[in-house]
Protein backbone atom coordinates (compact mmCIF):
# COMPACT_ATOMS: atom_id res chain seq x y z
CA UNK A 1 0.00 0.00 0.00
CA UNK A 2 1.20 3.45 -0.91
CA UNK A 3 0.00 4.81 2.46
CA UNK A 4 2.20 2.52 4.53
CA UNK A 5 5.22 3.28 2.36
CA UNK A 6 4.62 7.02 2.51
CA UNK A 7 4.56 6.92 6.31
CA UNK A 8 8.07 5.46 6.26
CA UNK A 9 9.39 7.63 3.47
CA UNK A 10 11.00 10.86 3.78
CA UNK A 11 13.33 12.23 4.41
CA UNK A 12 13.57 14.79 5.54
CA UNK A 13 14.88 17.06 8.97
CA UNK A 14 15.27 19.28 12.20
CA UNK A 15 16.36 22.70 13.51
CA UNK A 16 14.68 25.77 12.08
CA UNK A 17 16.41 29.04 11.33
CA UNK A 18 15.79 31.91 8.97
CA UNK A 19 14.79 35.53 9.00
CA UNK A 20 11.76 37.19 10.52
CA UNK A 21 10.22 37.94 7.14
CA UNK A 22 9.30 34.30 6.63
CA UNK A 23 6.46 34.96 4.27
CA UNK A 24 8.28 37.57 2.20
CA UNK A 25 10.70 36.92 -0.62
CA UNK A 26 12.84 38.87 -3.01
CA UNK A 27 11.36 39.41 -6.43
CA UNK A 28 11.66 36.18 -8.38
CA UNK A 29 12.50 34.09 -5.29
CA UNK A 30 10.41 31.08 -4.26
CA UNK A 31 8.49 31.21 -0.99
CA UNK A 32 8.50 28.27 1.42
CA UNK A 33 5.06 27.19 0.25
CA UNK A 34 6.11 27.41 -3.40
CA UNK A 35 9.17 25.24 -2.75
CA UNK A 36 7.06 22.57 -1.07
CA UNK A 37 4.28 22.63 -3.67
CA UNK A 38 6.73 22.48 -6.58
CA UNK A 39 8.41 19.45 -5.04
CA UNK A 40 5.06 17.78 -4.37
CA UNK A 41 4.00 18.38 -7.98
CA UNK A 42 7.22 16.79 -9.20
CA UNK A 43 6.61 13.77 -6.96
CA UNK A 44 3.10 13.31 -8.35
CA UNK A 45 4.43 13.62 -11.92
CA UNK A 46 7.00 10.89 -11.22
CA UNK A 47 4.34 8.70 -9.63
CA UNK A 48 2.18 9.01 -12.75
CA UNK A 49 5.07 7.79 -14.90
CA UNK A 50 6.39 5.49 -12.18
CA UNK A 51 5.83 2.10 -13.75
CA UNK A 52 7.11 3.23 -17.13
CA UNK A 53 10.20 4.86 -15.63
CA UNK A 54 11.13 2.02 -13.32
CA UNK A 55 13.29 2.61 -10.27
CA UNK A 56 16.30 3.92 -12.22
CA UNK A 57 14.16 6.32 -14.20
CA UNK A 58 12.38 7.62 -11.10
CA UNK A 59 15.74 8.11 -9.39
CA UNK A 60 17.08 10.18 -12.29
CA UNK A 61 13.90 12.27 -12.49
CA UNK A 62 14.00 13.03 -8.75
CA UNK A 63 17.69 13.93 -8.38
CA UNK A 64 17.27 17.62 -9.19
CA UNK A 65 13.88 18.11 -7.46
CA UNK A 66 15.25 16.67 -4.21
CA UNK A 67 18.51 18.62 -4.41
CA UNK A 68 16.68 21.86 -5.21
CA UNK A 69 14.16 21.58 -2.37
CA UNK A 70 16.07 19.90 0.48
CA UNK A 71 19.06 21.17 2.46
CA UNK A 72 20.83 17.82 2.11
CA UNK A 73 24.23 18.89 3.46
CA UNK A 74 22.76 20.19 6.71
CA UNK A 75 20.42 17.24 7.01
CA UNK A 76 23.30 14.77 6.66
CA UNK A 77 25.21 16.55 9.41
CA UNK A 78 22.19 16.64 11.71
CA UNK A 79 21.60 12.89 11.48
CA UNK A 80 25.04 12.13 12.93
CA UNK A 81 24.88 14.85 15.60
CA UNK A 82 28.04 15.54 17.58
CA UNK A 83 29.58 12.33 16.28
CA UNK A 84 30.03 14.19 13.00
CA UNK A 85 32.58 16.49 14.64
CA UNK A 86 34.95 13.52 14.88
CA UNK A 87 34.87 12.90 11.14
CA UNK A 88 37.52 14.13 8.73
CA UNK A 89 36.58 16.52 5.89
CA UNK A 90 36.75 13.63 3.46
CA UNK A 91 34.45 11.52 5.65
CA UNK A 92 32.00 14.38 6.07
CA UNK A 93 31.76 14.82 2.30
CA UNK A 94 31.35 11.09 1.79
CA UNK A 95 28.52 11.10 4.32
CA UNK A 96 26.76 13.97 2.53
CA UNK A 97 27.11 12.19 -0.81
CA UNK A 98 25.78 8.83 0.37
CA UNK A 99 22.98 10.38 2.45
CA UNK A 100 21.90 12.44 -0.57
CA UNK A 101 21.71 9.27 -2.64
CA UNK A 102 19.70 7.60 0.13
CA UNK A 103 17.23 10.48 0.18
CA UNK A 104 16.65 10.30 -3.57
CA UNK A 105 16.49 6.49 -3.49
CA UNK A 106 13.88 6.60 -0.72
CA UNK A 107 11.60 8.83 -2.78
CA UNK A 108 12.18 6.76 -5.94
CA UNK A 109 11.22 3.62 -4.05
CA UNK A 110 8.23 4.93 -2.10
CA UNK A 111 6.59 7.06 -4.79
CA UNK A 112 6.58 4.38 -7.46
CA UNK A 113 3.04 4.34 -8.84
CA UNK A 114 -0.11 6.41 -9.07
CA UNK A 115 -3.75 5.68 -8.27
CA UNK A 116 -5.25 9.14 -7.91
CA UNK A 117 -3.16 10.47 -5.00
CA UNK A 118 -2.74 14.21 -4.50
CA UNK A 119 -1.24 16.74 -2.09
CA UNK A 120 -3.47 19.41 -0.53
CA UNK A 121 -2.16 22.57 1.14
CA UNK A 122 -3.59 23.20 4.62
CA UNK A 123 -1.76 26.15 6.16
CA UNK A 124 1.56 27.91 6.63
CA UNK A 125 3.05 29.37 9.78
CA UNK A 126 6.16 31.17 10.89
CA UNK A 127 8.03 29.65 13.83
CA UNK A 128 9.46 31.58 16.75
CA UNK A 129 12.95 30.91 15.39
CA UNK A 130 12.18 32.48 12.03
CA UNK A 131 11.56 29.28 10.13
CA UNK A 132 8.43 28.27 8.25
CA UNK A 133 6.25 25.18 8.61
CA UNK A 134 4.05 24.25 5.66
CA UNK A 135 1.18 21.96 6.64
CA UNK A 136 -0.42 19.76 4.02
CA UNK A 137 -1.90 16.31 3.61
CA UNK A 138 -1.50 13.53 1.09
CA UNK A 139 -4.84 12.26 -0.20
CA UNK A 140 -4.92 8.50 -0.78
CA UNK A 141 -8.09 7.20 -2.50
CA UNK A 142 -10.05 4.78 -0.31
CA UNK A 143 -7.68 5.27 2.60
CA UNK A 144 -6.87 7.78 5.33
CA UNK A 145 -4.90 10.89 4.31
CA UNK A 146 -1.31 11.29 5.50
CA UNK A 147 -0.52 14.55 7.30
CA UNK A 148 2.76 16.17 6.23
CA UNK A 149 4.49 19.00 8.09
CA UNK A 150 7.39 20.50 6.14
CA UNK A 151 9.91 22.50 8.15
CA UNK A 152 12.00 24.93 6.11
CA UNK A 153 14.84 27.37 6.65
CA UNK A 154 15.81 30.25 4.42
CA UNK A 155 18.87 29.78 2.23
CA UNK A 156 19.98 32.65 0.06
CA UNK A 157 16.90 33.99 -1.70
CA UNK A 158 14.86 30.83 -1.33
CA UNK A 159 13.84 28.18 1.20
CA UNK A 160 14.98 24.60 1.79
CA UNK A 161 13.28 21.69 3.53
CA UNK A 162 15.04 20.67 6.74
CA UNK A 163 12.55 18.15 8.09
CA UNK A 164 9.43 16.35 6.93
CA UNK A 165 7.14 14.87 9.55
CA UNK A 166 4.58 12.34 8.35
CA UNK A 167 1.63 11.77 10.71
CA UNK A 168 3.71 13.07 13.60
CA UNK A 169 6.74 10.86 12.90
CA UNK A 170 10.09 12.41 11.97
CA UNK A 171 12.18 10.06 9.86
CA UNK A 172 15.17 12.29 10.54
CA UNK A 173 14.90 11.83 14.29
CA UNK A 174 14.75 8.06 13.85
CA UNK A 175 17.78 8.10 11.57
CA UNK A 176 19.73 10.29 13.98
CA UNK A 177 19.21 7.79 16.78
CA UNK A 178 20.21 4.87 14.56
CA UNK A 179 23.19 6.53 12.84
CA UNK A 180 24.83 7.95 15.95
CA UNK A 181 24.60 4.53 17.60
CA UNK A 182 26.30 2.86 14.63
CA UNK A 183 29.04 5.49 14.58
CA UNK A 184 29.71 5.05 18.29
CA UNK A 185 29.69 1.25 18.29
CA UNK A 186 30.89 0.23 14.82
CA UNK A 187 32.52 3.25 13.22
CA UNK A 188 32.19 5.36 10.09
CA UNK A 189 32.78 2.64 7.49
CA UNK A 190 30.04 0.48 9.02
CA UNK A 191 27.58 3.38 8.76
CA UNK A 192 28.41 4.03 5.11
CA UNK A 193 28.07 0.33 4.33
CA UNK A 194 24.68 0.21 6.05
CA UNK A 195 23.38 3.21 4.10
CA UNK A 196 24.67 1.78 0.81
CA UNK A 197 22.97 -1.52 1.64
CA UNK A 198 19.68 0.34 2.17
CA UNK A 199 20.06 2.11 -1.19
CA UNK A 200 20.74 -1.22 -2.86
CA UNK A 201 17.64 -2.74 -1.28
CA UNK A 202 15.50 0.15 -2.52
CA UNK A 203 16.72 -0.43 -6.06
CA UNK A 204 15.67 -4.08 -5.97
CA UNK A 205 12.18 -3.71 -4.52
From TrEMBL:
Signal peptide start-end: 1-24
Signal found in the keyword field: yes
One protein family per Pfam: MlaC
Superkingdom: Bacteria
Keyword Magnesium: no
Sorted UniProt keywords: Signal
PANTHER family cross-referenced by the UniProt entry: INTERMEMBRANE PHOSPHOLIPID TRANSPORT SYSTEM BINDING PROTEIN MLAC (PTHR36573:SF1)
NCBIfam families hit by this protein: HpnM
Name of protein: Hopanoid biosynthesis protein HpnM
Organism: Candidatus Methylobacter oryzae
Amino acid sequence: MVLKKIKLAVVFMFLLFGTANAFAADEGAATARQVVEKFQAELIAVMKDGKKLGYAGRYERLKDPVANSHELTKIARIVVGKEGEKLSEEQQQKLVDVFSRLSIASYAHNFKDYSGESFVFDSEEETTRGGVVVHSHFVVPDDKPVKFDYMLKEKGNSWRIINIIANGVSDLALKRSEYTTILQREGFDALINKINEKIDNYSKQ
